[in-house]
Amino acid sequence: MDLNLIVFFAMILLLIAIGLTKLNYLKYVMMYFISFALYSSSWDLLYSFSGQLSLGHAIPFGVGAFAIALLASDFNFSPIFALVLASLVAAIVGGVIGTTTIRLRPAYQGIAMLLFSQVLYWFSLIKYGDEGISFGFYKGAQIVTTAQVYIFGLFVFVIGIGSIYYIENSKHRLKLIATKDDQIAAEAAGLHVSKYKIAIFFLSSFFAGLAGAFFALYSLHTDYTIFMVSNSFLPIGMSIIGGSGGVGGAILGSLIISLLNEIIPVYFSLATAYIIYGIMVIVILRFLPTGIIGILSKTIISVKNELIVDSKLVNGKKLNSSRFKK
Amino acid sequence: MLYGLISSLIGGVTYGLIISLMAAGLSLIYGVMSNVNTSHGMFYMLGGFLAFLASFYLHLPPFFSLLFTCLASFVIGIGVLLLIVPSSLRVTTDPDSQNQVMILLLALATATEYVVLLVFGGSSVAVPSMIYGTLTFANGVYITYQTLLASLISVVSYLLLYVFLKFTKVGLGIRAFAQNKDLARAIGIEGERLSLIVFGIGVLLAALSGALLASIFSVNSASGWNELVISFVIVTLGGIGSIFGSLLGGLIYGIAYSIALYYYPSYAFIIVLILIYLVLIIKPTGLLGEIIERV
After folding, report:
1. Which chain regions cross the lipid bilayer (chain B) (predicted)?
2. What range does the domain containing A31 cover?
3. Backbone φ and ψ of A179, nearest 5°
4. At what angle do helices A106-128 and B95-120 cross, to 10 degrees?
5. What is the per-residue pLDDT across A44-72, written as a single tens digit (0 to 9) for each?
6. CATH number, domain containing residue A84
7. Could you tell me the pTM of the whole model?
8. A27 located within any domain
9. Complex ipTM value
């Protein structure tokens, strides 16, 4: 069975278990985790399945957050409808910006995204000021208490990451990986590389927007800091630490960083936390490029092999020991 | 009305001149490493803080604090590249490896930003002027001597850079590598070692431009990202790999920015950035990409 799927189901069980308790603080931490797990999975979808590096993935994330804030405060939408609509807005904004960057050289694409995240940073700072937007839902106010928002978040987690997992393992998987590994060879084999790239950009922006909209929904606030470069760096760091190339790595990485985000500021400060993330990313990218999930799968394989050697059982049958020695 | 615009234009041209130094550094690094240095803005910020450190803690006179900034950033740049980017990734055209280097340098930039925040705090710092006073023309058009001197220093740096690239052996290697990597490798130029020198010089230029602009404006720990984006558009505007292309791109950016600043003060940065980006989309080789000889 796929390790990504195992991590995903284990995480759902853990989230349900926490939902059954009355630990409201832990629930808030896990809502941060839900939002960022989806955010970094969407970045990883773009990075590992179409070879596009987005250094400004805060664009769809922040647009989703601002869109839900405006839809709730100015247009009085109900939470679920606002969430879906905000994700669509983020998909369109992020997708259109991403589509323009495809024309540039590969190394330029990331910086072009960074450019637009800076543009949106200044725009939101000038338009909405230091204090940002604080909002509440009047219509469909059934999502009020922490427990209710948490259940809502659980659905976002299951649907969002489930869809990303589905996309990554659908019949297009090989085509996407081919697009990433060698664009020219993929084109020569008859793939519409740019079509796939654009499609993945829209999808990735949609899920990042969903994550941002949920982030704003549970904190009921959003401001210009959401477009900061450090916020674009976080999903990158999470995916790299967990291991890129699947939802499992993004989930593990964001779980670790969400927990560290609560632990480190108690002893040091939030700035120290970012320094530690930066160093972690450098060390892991240099010495453990497969990330935590890579270590996990390696251990699982070696444990499996040991078990096989110990019992000399393969598929329930006893192995001929002389054949095994060979 | 007109005189206000002239004042604004003078400011824009000098700003463009100084910031284009940083862009020239980005362009040099791209020429050899064929990668965008995502930590370039961090070195701009570091340059401002190094000059601040030199003048307030080491009590160096302003000119020597500039020299200190250049030397220190050169050494830091080489050290950083040696420490965090493996030699196999330094000179590569493989998109996957390029992405890895960009992530490594972005992680470095983010970590350093917060180190500076912890050490110096979040407030802005300014470097003392080398020279005080203002040159005033008629009708309130003026320019401070410090701005003039800073522009002069950037012009001199451009000349030094030109001499270095045109008349030294290392400069010849850099130009050869920027033109054709395979051929340069074939005649025995080592890209990995060359990339160290180029990275050092590139971030030196970023730090110099940061120190000069910190003496006119100020820097804080979060600055640098804007400048990274600005130097990116300048480089692509002028065409990659050409020093005078980035000089021209910087001047175009400065003039456009000052005009936008005069008419739409709050959205000037956004308007200019998006306008230049649209130009790039229409003409990805840059305005001057094919015209200017690659120096």
Report:
1. 6-30, 42-60, 66-89, 101-122, 142-165, 194-217, 229-254, 261-282
2. 3-289
3. -60, -40
4. 40
5. 999 999 888 999 999 999 999 999 999 98
6. 1.10.3470
7. 0.91
8. yes
9. 0.90
